Amino acid sequence: MGQPHEGDEAGDRSGTGSDKPALGVGMVGYAFMGAAHSQGWRTAGHVFDLPLRPVLAAVCGRDATAVRTAADQLGWAAAETDWRALIARDDVDIVDICTPGDSHAEIALAALAAGKHVLCEKPLANTVGEAEAMAEAARAAGDRGQVAMVGFNYRRLPAAALARTMVAEGRIGHLRHVRVTYLQDWLVDPQFPLTWRLRKESAGSGALGDLGAHIVDLAQYLAGEPVVGVSALTETFVRERPLPTGASVGLSASAGGHLGPVTVDDAALFTGRFGSGALASFEATRYATGRKNSLRIELNGEEGSLAFDLERLNELSYYDGTEPGTRAGFRRILVTEPDHPYLEAWWPPGHGLGYEHTFVHQARDLVHAIAEGGRPLPSFADGLQVQRVLAAVEESAAKNSVYTPTAS
Ligand SMILES: NC(=O)c1ccc[n+]([C@@H]2O[C@H](COP(=O)([O-])OP(=O)(O)OC[C@H]3O[C@@H](n4cnc5c(N)ncnc54)[C@H](O)[C@@H]3O)[C@@H](O)[C@H]2O)c1
User: Fold this and answer.
1) pLDDT tens figures, 117-157
2) Domain check: are 222 and 263 in the same one?
3) Is 206 a pocket residue for ligand 1 (Cβ < 6 Å)?
4) Per-residue DSSP letters for 266-284?
5) Prior bond to 242 cis, omega within 30?
6) Which distant-in-sequence residues (6+ apart) come within 8 Å of 175 by Cβ?
7) Residue 345 structural domain
8) CATH code at 38?
9) Which of 151, 324, 334, 402 has the most CB within a 10 Å radius?
């Protein structure tokens, strides 16, 4: 297994606390998530007192010039053009996968087989079969002391982590409802090009696997239990789009003249059932005009409710149903106190955090797990379970919304 090693040139330049053993990071993909993860790895050891010193050892992309430029911009010591070479490097202890879903399984399986720790972006894979193989490999690797985690970064928002703690403490009582929406609008224009996110062979599914995976994970994390079955509708509103010219980055790309078929869903709506009997509703779309990255979740229990809105990510709304009716009401908890999750190392109360901090927290949690022999969550088994919910959604949608149990 790749062991933390003493500092080298890259470590001295990228890490902090030179007395600490280095943890060499190798990242595949350097666009949207690559930039976000780079920021996480660069920052975590400078903010939190970590047991190991993350070192940005090498980044991988397929174009030699572009990946070298990205390495310099994002702070990586070396650049590789083949992910196999990245995995084989002695100075890489953890492989961080920031590529589209069609390469997650192959890279993760090879990295685990090579004895490396793995962080894999969501969704874990494009199919349940791939996710099963990854979860099994991660389980076996875990027995050898390796760590594998999925990048469901919204769990690492302080307000979401606080909400989880409050649910686990029984602050809303027996759960009845989870209501969650994840809305974007970057596909409203029918001329937006046919990037990898709109092709089944590269993305697995559309809004479902992209946004739906996040909200299924978040709902299950906050509820503390899995979705056991769903009834679903999916739709592809625009069935042909212009082919892209050149590479896309994140949600941006430019369009050429020729059209190609969209082979994924544009929107997914589904209801779900938890084992406890609680009901959930989910909506994931790229056609919610005016909604840029709107993720809202509300949980209603017998004794209270919690609500979170990603556009106000330093806040958590809480209704305490045990208070006298004359005094009760939703109250806003400003989640910036040093005792709140992840906040001990950041700014004074009231000086809020943002989206990018989730990736710093993700790196922090992984470093602790690796140093302390922990099994960080969400595990690949958790990623597989989300994948099974997504598969049940697709199956239900194909059968006119018939209720479809989640495979186990
Ligand atoms: N956690 C989140 O909030 C979040 C947000 C966006 C995307 N994602 C996930 O992150 C992953 C990447 O998405 P993105 O938005 O960064 O995509 P992107 O298009 O911006 O970047 C993809 C990168 O992967 C590289 N790449 C593709 N195939 C490769 C290969 N075989 N070898 C080496 N490099 C390869 C591309 O060159 C590019 O650098 C996806 O799984 C996506 O679902 C997660």
Assistant:
1) 999 999 999 999 999 999 999 999 999 999 999 999 999 99
2) yes
3) no
4) SEEEEEEEETTS-EEEEEE
5) no
6) 167, 223, 274, 276, 278, 299, 300, 301
7) 155-357+377-404
8) 3.40.50.720
9) 151
Q: Is the distance from the beta carbon of residue 38 to the nearest atom of ligand 1 less than 6 Å?
A: no
| 243 and 381 together in one domain | yes
Q: Are residues 164 and 141 in the same domain?
A: no
Radius of gyration of the chain, Cα coordinates, nearest whole angstrom: 21
Q: What pairs with residue 150 in β-bridges?
A: 120
Ligand 1 near 30 CB (within 6 A): yes
Mean pLDDT of the residues in the chain: 95
Separation of alpha carbons 395 and 22, rounded Å: 46
Q: In what order do the strands lie in the sheet with 53-60?
A: 78-80, 53-60, 22-28, 94-97, 117-120, 148-150
Distance 278 CA to ligand 1 centre (A): 34
Q: Which atom of ligand 1 is nearest to the CA of 195?
A: 19
Q: Are residues 185 and 279 in the same domain?
A: yes
Beta-carbon contacts of 240 under 8 Å, excluding residues fewer than 6 positions away, are 259, 260, 261, 262
Low-confidence ranges of the chain (pLDDT < 50): 1-4, 6-15
Check whether residue 104 and residue 172 sit in a common domain: no
Using an 8 Å Cβ cutoff, are 21 and 6 in contact? yes
pLDDT at 14: 42
CB proximity list for 49: less than 8 A, separation 6 or greater: 345
pTM tops 0.90, yes or no = yes
pLDDT at 257: 76
Residue nearest to atom 28 of ligand 1 (CA): 99
In a domain, 363, yes or no: no
CA 175 – ligand 1 centroid, Å: 35
Residue 90: its pLDDT value, please? 98
Which of 123, 153, 183 is a domain's end point? 153
